Amino acid sequence: MEKLTKIEELPFQLESYLMLGDAVIITDYKHIIVNVNKEFEKVTGYSGDSIIGEHARFMKSKMTPKSTYTSLKKMLSEGKPWSGVFVNRKKSGEIWHSSITISPIQVGMDVYFVGVFRELEQLKQGIYLSENKRIETQRELLKVLAISCEIRDPGIEEHLFRVQELTEMLITEHVQRHHLKIPKNTVHHIIHSSILHDIGKSGIPEGILYKPGPLTTYERKIIEMHPLMGVDIVNKFSKELHSELIFNQDIVRNIILYHHEKWDGTGYPNQLSGEDIPLEARIVAVVDVYDALTSRRPYKDSWTTEDALSFIYEQKGKHFDPFIVETFLDHFERKAIIS
Ligand SMILES: [Fe+2]
């Protein structure tokens, strides 16, 4: 292998890192390999002599998501250590999933990057899931949970999927429109968790939940307990599961607990108002009501899109966040112009 640059000597201050039991790679600030340890040679099959002076990217498999390198670059440029998962290739061509921590270390005027690998097969957590597979599994699990909690309601599946689709549209357009600095991951969590907004309904007696006529005050109070019951369900199963793999607990709790709060403070269960209601709950509130209005239920006909949108407009600043209503209505206006 032809060397890209003049080979640098490893500063003595960094020698002790090579004594670690895990595979270690040390590069200069341009990611040119300065040294590796025996464990690295053993795991990857590359001898140190053959790769010192190479750019560390030569091990890339093209299977590591771009976002991994973006977050790595960002952290290192800020002088902070970064941890993540690389999918590299060993000398044999075999794919190598490894968890790595890269720490910037200053020696005199120079910065070096010390990378400590752990093979994922050796991690106690068990099987490694790629980011895409993890997101897919997460989505499926949440779907199964949401449907099982509301299985008594025929047609609930369609309502839940529509709520999820509309939440995706609304949060995406709202973030773009107001240049909100919300990480992509958080947006994904909001979209996936929206399907769980009514899981607490599984704790409401059928006779009340599907009562065709008007509800008594007592029955209404029982129905209004569903956000609290939903949070209780989430608390129970998050104790049993390695839950951060499945959802962001704060987001899912906020959606379940606050999707019936109103902008003017007249909602339930906590009478929160304005921006005290978390954004994710304000978003789901609009799409949940819109979809309920436009769906046919045993006790009511479906409203037309125009009537439902007029109702949403009329509730702007009362039931709903006025800015979110604007994004929502603009979406339908654009759609109407296009069609
Ligand atoms: Fe609800």
TrEMBL record:
Transmembrane segments: none annotated. CDD domains: HDc, PAS. Gene3D superfamilies: Hypothetical protein af1432 (1.10.3210.10), PAS domain (3.30.450.20). PROSITE patterns: HD_GYP, PAS. SUPFAM superfamilies: HD-domain/PDEase-like, PYP-like sensor domain (PAS domain). This is HD domain-containing protein. It comes from Metabacillus sediminilitoris.
